Amino acid sequence: GELFLNGRYLPPEQATVSAFDRGFLFGEGIYEVWLVVGRRLVDLDSHLSRLDRSLRETGIPVPPERAALPTILAEIITRNAITDGFIYLQITSGAGERNFTGEASTRPTLLILAQEKDALAAPALQSGIAVDLVPDIRWLRRDIKTIMLLPQVMAKKAAMAHGRQDAIFYDSTGVTEGASANVFIVTAQGDVVTRALSHELLPGCTRNRVMILAREAGLTVREETITVDALLAAPEVFLTSATSLVMPVVRIGDSTIGNGQRGATTQRLQQLYLNYIDSLPPI
Ligand code: PLP
Fold it and tell me: Which CA distances in Å does 100 have to 182, 212, 226?
């Protein structure tokens, strides 16, 4: 396979980045992940819009390839013969002398990788996953999709050490989001609830798509803070992300969610999301 680095398609072993890259030294970088299903690039435009916003909010320079990104993403899929998988794209503010503010003229580092993986085949989409609740120790610009992911790595590793598959963050108000996903509950009335957007969570592209699909299907969708008590008492809990799609959560800490199996509304939303993907044109 080949990856894309600063204007060139390269075999991975030939792709190198400066030790002075500001992503490496300062964590000054942003990223995106796209789901690819049957050569369909899911939610191409909303991920690109979020990428543009992350660049604007951080002041990381826009790479010269920005306008060509849809073409480059398609080319990466083709060169790696990806049918089902993911595209990872990262932009850092480039290399320079090691100081906090850098130089205005640095060429941003643009890296694009493709990974073959049949996300739809994950058994967890049917069986659901167990997660741990973890205090949200992150910074207060979680709306930016930054590569500064140490709290997420620590939370996921701690959860995995307990035999869980993932982590959900909470603060003094309630659930913020998953370590790499947004959190939804389904109430006893059948309403679909997720935290409102703010600086406290990432505006997930899958979150947005699932909300649209749920409303089109006649479900009531509310954006409200979910307390930890409400989370643990909810009949259904699920996560959304480009990598886990609509993922049922059947255990949180020592609590079983619902009857410990994927809920009916979660299953319905999974199907609506798959139907939506099927309706997209392959690249
Ligand atoms: N929240 C966090 C912290 C994430 O890292 C992610 C994805 O990686 C999401 C939410 C879900 O975003 P999306 O649906 O755009 O993949």
Answer: 32, 41, 38
